[in-house]
Specification:
Shape: globular
Structural class: mainly alpha
Order of helices and strands: HHHHHHHHHHHHH
Number of helices: 13
Distance between the termini: 21 Å
Helix content: over 70%
CATH class: Mainly Alpha
Strand content: under 5%
Number of strands: 0
CATH architecture: Up-down Bundle
Length: 300
């Protein structure tokens, strides 16, 4: 094995291993002690993630037009994955509303943000946040509408993450700055978000249910496969620069978001089947992510 291959393997290891360690800490802690992450997760969504988004979006170095094609690509990956796999629902004997949301809406928060930052450095954080926002906007509009057609999509405008995004973009566009006494605590709160996401994912992994393992196994293969296929098909059209194409490939390869299970539970849409798809998909990502990383790092 030559030095280039060894360097690539080392980079993949140094990217994936810290994620596995933090997820494992959450898993084994929850196995040892009964752990309810509902309050921590709510605080993360309402406080820490908005702080991270505002911190990134309001930075002077953030250039929104530079990520417009990447954002459009992410939108097409999410929607395209659903369209690509729609015909398979009947073959697999599963309801569309049960199977398609986990295939479309991936783990761009808990896994995607730290993965891109570890693989490509802090320069990838704005792109990672953009991908996370696109996926979340679609999940809280299209995703909820798929489960309940009576949902008002404009409710998304009241989400703290969306408010933080708009505020951050205003600060960036008009070159506004906050006093250091305000900006520093916001930055510190944002730094809590990523490790807490990973820890919470580990806690959630303790509830793996193998009752519906067949549909879960199909989902663990089809979710990353469909995302990567759509990303590859889009590149000749979007002509993303190599680094952004690498980001989009990894975005496409991410496993289903844990939020899919919470949504299925809320709308009583076969939550146990969705849980199997989500959790087996995240376990399967331990094999998928290193392969996707190897391809993306070479492409970038």
């Amino acid at each position: 094995m030559d030095s280039t291959s060894l360097a690539l393997l080392e980079r993949i290891f140094l990217t994936v291993f810290p994620l596995v360690v933090i997820v494992s800490v959450g898993f084994f802690y929850a196995r040892a002690r009964t752990t309810d992450m509902s309050v921590a997760n709510r605080i993360n969504i309402d406080v820490f993630c908005p702080a991270l988004i505002f911190s990134v979006m309001s930075a002077k170095s953030f250039d929104l037009p530079a990520y417009s094609n990447l954002a459009f690509g992410a939108l097409l990956v999410v929607l395209g994955s659903g369209l690509l796999l729609w015909p398979l629902c009947r073959l697999l004997g599963v309801q569309i509303k049960t199977f398609l949301p986990p295939m479309m809406f991936n783990n761009s928060g808990n896994l995607g943000i730290p993965l891109l930052v570890l693989a490509f450095g802090e320069q990838a954080l704005p792109a990672a946040v953009i991908l996370f926002l696109v996926e979340n906007l679609l999940h809280f509009t299209v995703g909820i509408y798929m489960l309940d057609h009576r949902t008002n999509p404009f409710n998304v405008l009241r989400m703290p993450m969306i408010i933080a995004t708009i505020a951050g973009l205003l600060f960036s566009s008009f070159d506004w700055t906050l006093p250091a006494a305000v900006q520093v605590p916001i930055d510190m709160l944002g730094q809590i978000a990523i490790p807490l996401m990973l820890f919470a994912l580990g806690v959630r992994m303790t509830s793996v249910d193998f009752t519906h393992w067949k549909i879960g196994a199909w989902g663990s293969v089809l979710a990353p496969a469909s995302g990567v296929l759509v990303a590859l098909a889009l590149q000749p059209i979007l002509q993303l620069e190599p680094l952004q194409f690498s980001y989009l490939l990894i975005f496409g390869a991410l496993p289903p978001a844990v939020l899919n299970y919470m949504m299925a539970e809320r709308y009583n849409q076969e939550p146990q089947q969705v849980a199997s798809i989500v959790l087996l998909g995240n376990i399967g990502s331990l094999l998928v992510i290193p392969i996707a990383l190897a391809f993306a790092l070479q492409a970038g």
